Structure formats: C-alpha cells, structure tokens
Amino acid sequence: MNINQAIQLVRFILNKDQNGNITGDNFNLMAPVAQMSVLQDRLGNIKKYQPGSTVPNYGFSVSQKAREELMPLMVKPTTTAVAAGLAAYPANYLYYNTLETAAGKLITEATQDEIVELNNSAITPPSTMFPKFVMHSDGFYIYPTSITSIKISYIRKPETPIWAYTISNNEEVYDAGNSQDFELNETTHFEIVMQILQMSGVNLNMLQVTQYAQAMEAQGK
Known about the structure:
The protein has helices spanning 3-16, 24-44, 64-70, 112-119, 189-199, 206-218; strands at residues 74-81, 86-88, 93-101, 108-109, 132-136, 139-143, 149-156, 165-168, 171-174. The strands form three sheets. The chain has a four-stranded mixed beta sheet, with no helix packed on it.
C-alpha cells in the first residue's frame, strides 16, 4: 500500500473503534518509528535470541522471508576506499551483509582480541587470501592494511515515510508529489499500520487489521 492508503486505513480503524482521528503531522511522527520497529524485527531482535536453539531467531540471514522483505533496502556490493586500514561506513549504512576484496575474496569478521592474536601469529595472520575485518564506531578496520579498497553489500537506512498534504477548506488533502511511501516490502505494510495503531492506543492483531482493510476496500475508500 502507498502512504496515503496507510493513513486512510489508520483513520478508518480509529473511526470504527471510536478512537478519534489522527492528524497528518502525528501520523508522520509515528510512521518512521513504526517502519523502523518492523525493520529492526527483520534485522533480528536480540531480545528474541534463545541460547541453545537449533535455529536462533536472530539475524535476517536465518530467514528467507526476512531477507526478501528487506530486499528493497539491500545495496549491492559497492566499492569503498580503504585508507590506512579503515573503510568508513557509507552515509546510509545500517547493517552489513558481506564484505569482499576487489579480487572477490570474502572478508570475515573478527573481534578486537582475535585480530590482536592473528596479527601476532606467524602461521595464520590476515592475508589478501584470508582477510579479516573488525567493526568500530568509525567504520570497518580491514586486515591486512595493505588492502586499499573493498566491496560492501549492506542494508541501507530507509527513507523517512511522509504523508505530505496541503490544506483546503480546513481539511488535509494528500499531496502525492511530496510524499514518501514505505520502503520495506509490501508484505510488511499491515504490520507497520498495526504499530501505528498501537502507538495511537488501539491494539489489534494482524488478522483484525487485514479484515478492516478488506472492509474499507468494500466500502470503496
């Protein structure tokens, strides 16, 4: 659904449940939070991790469905310069998928203490054949430091969803040209609406939201 259909559904449900209405400004405050909440769930909510589980419910790579729902935000391998061993995070970076060298060698992650041991190893130090990286607040530290460029595939930050509007006869009128739709896969949009409703004080499950959407469509709204 586009952003206009989303706010219309929210308003329809609020009206049916006699919970008042929602202004465009309040919707625009809630929509980015709701979208990020659903995005964070797909990336992997660490609170859901269960130690000892055969398939931990953590990390978008463990679920094909989660990966496909995040696909609109997946940036294909992009060449990034490495200066003195540091590859800065892209401006819209959120979560890495893969890092590889220009020659196509996968760069695997290591912790800081592991890289200290590896750098002091005479047998298995990081090399261009078996490179490593460590994450810090300012970017990826690549080993060996002789590597001057890498390719990063990552999940980018979504654009902020906006329901733009103009005022006509004291009513908010949808402005499609200045609006921004949700960027996650459409299969997540009902869940985003559900999150907005929860922030508005209405707690519904997915089936109920879907039923309201069908009722709104039946009424030609």
